[in-house]
Design brief:
This protein is mostly helical. The chain has one domain. It has ten helices and two strands; from the N terminus they run ααβααααβαααα. The longest helix has 20 residues, at 75-94.
Length: 200
């Protein structure tokens, strides 16, 4: 949403999503050679820093740690749920924005038809093929509106956290996490998007 308000260039919008996309693809950015793509990446990091200090986000992280730990969920898992879960729920709320949806679709479509080879270097032996594969799958998939539903977010959290044994859900963690996600969604919806405007 923020990237779409700054520029309608699909390279800029894609750059703003890239730090999350490379993480999903299991690769890391070394350098962006395209200046518009690089500007989008810079916006992502600036926005992350501002968002992670926003009261609505810090309150959700705090409530997740307190409520989930009180329900028996491990400290590390509780912190991860608060951080990642809040971001995924936010994606769901932002998915209602028509401008953001159109910008997302255009950026993904453009990246599939005009591959990023030469625009981006990745760390280690990784090539942009892994990232292009992810972009192709996202292009075929429906828009990320599933994040509007706490049950979908819970499924995604299980997949994401399972990659790190220290954070993975244990027996009995899912029910309190589902309850917290429902509550967190209500808090985010009640806060509206005024705080998003403050990040511009």
């Amino acid at each position: 949403m923020l990237a779409a308000r700054r520029s309608d260039d699909p390279r800029f919008v894609l750059g703003a999503m890239l730090p999350d996309l490379v993480s999903m693809a299991g690769v890391r950015i070394a350098q962006a050679h395209d200046p518009v793509l690089a500007a989008g990446i810079a916006l992502h990091h600036e926005t992350d820093a501002a968002f992670h200090g926003a009261p609505v986000f810090t309150e959700l992280c705090r409530s997740a740690q307190e409520e989930l730990q009180a329900a028996g969920v491990g400290r590390a898992t509780s912190r991860a749920v608060g951080h990642v879960g809040a971001e995924l729920l936010l994606d769901g709320i932002l998915s209602y924005d028509e401008v953001a949806r159109a910008a997302y679709s255009h950026a993904i479509e453009r990246s599939v038809h005009d591959p990023m080879e030469g625009m981006l270097s990745l760390r280690g032996d990784a090539t942009t093929q892994e990232l292009q594969g992810l972009l192709a799958r996202l292009h075929r998939a429906p828009l990320p509106q599933g994040y509007r539903e706490p049950s979908f977010v819970l499924d995604r959290l299980q997949t994401i956290l399972a990659r790190r044994p220290r954070l993975a859900f244990q027996s009995g963690d899912l029910e309190p996490t589902a309850l917290w996600l429902e509550k967190a969604k209500s808090q985010l919806e009640a806060s509206g998007t005024a705080w998003v405007d403050a990040l511009l």
